[in-house]
Amino acid sequence: MKIQDPVPLYPTSAELQTMRLADYPQTKAFIESGPAWRLQHWQWGLDFLQYIGRNKSEHTFVRFRGEVEKFLLWLFIFHNKPADELRKADILVFADFCWRPPQDWIGLAAADRFVPVSGAYETNPHWRPFRLKMPKKQSANDSDKKRYRPSQQTLLGMFTAIIAFYKHLMNEELCYGNPAQLAKTDCRHLIKDAQVKEVRRLTDEQWHYVLQTAEEMADSDSIHERTLFIVATLKTLFLRISELAERADWSPEMGHFWQDYDENWWLKVYGKGRKIRDVTVPSEYFAYLIRYRKSRGLPPFPYPGDNAPLVEKVRGQGGMTARHLTRIVQQVFDLAYEKMKRASGEERARKLREASSHWLRHTGASMEVQRGRALKDLSEDLGHASMATTDTVYVQSENRFRAESGKKRTVK
Q1: pLDDT digits (tens, 9 = 90+) for 78-116
Q2: From CA 318, how far away is CA 253, in angstroms rounded?
Q3: Helices 375-382 & 387-406, crossing angle to 10 degrees?
Q4: Where are the domains of the chain?
Q5: What architecture does CATH give domain 204-406?
Q6: Of 83, 126, 208, 380, which one's alpha carbon is 20 to 30 angstroms from that of 102?
């Protein structure tokens, strides 16, 4: 028997704030085709996600939307039981569903949920609730769907979202318990992890090739002065790509560099959790900042009220999107990989094929740990809510010494 195709329930964060179900005819028809509680639950999800969209980051909204959408679709199509009647055992059944979803519900590429048609929003037939992610540079096909298994991080993210959803329902006095919180402890797919985790960072040699490649690009074409600045800033100031990008509620400007009474330089950053932090700016970094500003015809140093975009578009006005910034960094990684492969071999260069822009943040932080910088100071610059989060980087540094000592064991 063919399983019903999934129907997306919620659009983007911006569209959700003013969403009218009548503008989404296929979603409306799907919801109204079931029992009355289906519409009620859809409204519960709408209220929860509107709150998340208003008060949390876009990244958090996207994650929670995906998990709540899967949960409600599972209730509507497979479990046929209202959320306020679920027990721990029901949530564990949902976890089993997420562990091995129907193959028809697994996509091979990201796709928008809706497409605008004649003033309304129709379901995109290519959208699927689950996505099979393959290693970079490797394509997937339908046969690979049998291999789909969510990572431990994905499963934990599912529980985090559903637990938060139930907390919202409890606060609204719509539910009187949180079965997802209880189920998380007993989920057979969650593994207690005490293994050594690989830090997603570049080696010192790989970082050397990345920086050298960006410098050579800038030397050969002034348009790549921006490229060099992006790479140097992400690594040296430990920024996430979103913190360098233009967003609806924040525009990074040159004036966000500022100098205190003791002539120390800082950069004001709008980060995760809608929090602003100040990142220390090292003296060596100014060579890259000044070089980029001169290429734009700006004075060497930023000044109060300097509203020039931190990273400007080459064409058009304003700052750049995270997607565009990511493409620029990826271009540098690709060129650095080819250069390092020729000089040092495929094995030493391999991680440059796997790397994402976020690796630059981890690389900078890991190098600071090796330098012996105080963990508290590094934690503040990274914008971590707890030093325990930063300590995960520190533990990896300790594991290097553990591995080195382990090499000295003998067989005889």
Answers
A1: 999 999 999 999 999 999 999 999 999 999 888 999 999
A2: 10
A3: 120
A4: 13-137+148-186, 204-406
A5: Orthogonal Bundle (1.10)
A6: 83
